[in-house]
Design a protein that fits this description.
The protein contains 9 helices and 3 strands, in the order H-H-E-E-H-H-H-H-H-H-H-E. With about 230 residues, the protein is mostly helical. It has 2 domains: about 10-65, no CATH class; about 80-225, Orthogonal Bundle (Triger factor/SurA peptide-binding fold).
């Protein structure tokens, strides 16, 4: 919801004057009062417009024409399914918001080049594609018997990031994630887990990293992907 528009000093004065018993009559007082027949007709029009609006919203939802963040879109509804596993609209919206915050705030502060508006506008499509890929990777990893536990993920994260950069202080690291990146530890766990899964797939399939994208594309061709969200 947009933040309320601040009221200037002049606007506050005008509001006070309008409510003062000594102020001039409001021009709205000159609007003639509707008679009962006109009121009934007016209510009929309002109700009819509301019903038509609801019908349009449900139609757009059913057809998948509404995009993330648009009024009426249920965050629990499926954005896509991968072999029956659901990726929700809420997941996509949340990751898009994190990415936007990074590119619009964190990245420029670090001296990064400005990100084009075209790229930002396509973040929903980019994020949905990444979430679909992550689901494929997770499913294949599970199929070959690789169970990447939270302890495994935490161990790698501690060795690579928390110890060398935060002196082993997990609380300081989580505070940085929350306040600076608008992320949670679970978000980081998901990325580390995916990296571990990819490493194990490369080893299992005897692939080098340059072959992975092609391998994943071929896997997707043999799979059932249903995309409900218009990007």
């Amino acid at each position: 919801m947009p933040a309320p528009t601040p009221i200037s000093g002049n606007a506050r004065g005008e509001q006070a004057a309008a409510s003062s018993p000594n102020s001039s009559p409001s021009p709205f007082n000159k609007i003639p009062i509707l008679n009962s027949q006109s009121r009934s007709f007016f209510l009929f029009l309002v109700c009819g417009a509301a019903i038509i609006g609801l019908v349009v919203v449900f139609f757009l939802l059913g057809r998948g024409y509404l995009k993330p963040g648009e009024t009426g879109l249920n965050p629990d509804s499926p954005a896509a399914t991968v072999n029956g596993e659901v990726i929700t609209v809420g997941e996509v919206e949340r990751q898009v918001a994190i990415r936007k915050h990074f590119y619009e705030n964190v990245y420029p502060e670090a001296g990064g080049e400005p990100i084009s508006k075209e790229y930002i506008d396509k973040l929903d499509e980019t994020v949905l594609g990444e979430l679909i890929n992550s689901e494929f990777i997770a499913q294949f990893s599970k199929g070959i018997g690789v169970d990447v536990t939270d302890d495994w993920v935490r161990g790698e994260l501690e060795a690579d990031v928390v110890k060398p950069e935060y002196n082993g202080d997990w609380q300081a690291y989580e505070t940085y994630l929350n306040e600076k990146l608008h992320k949670t530890l679970a978000d980081v766990y998901a990325g580390v887990r995916r990296d571990i899964q990819v490493r194990n797939i490369l080893e299992h399939e005897k692939l080098n990293p340059n072959q992975f994208d092609h391998w994943l594309l071929e896997l997707k061709k043999k799979s059932d992907i249903q995309i409900s969200l218009q990007t």
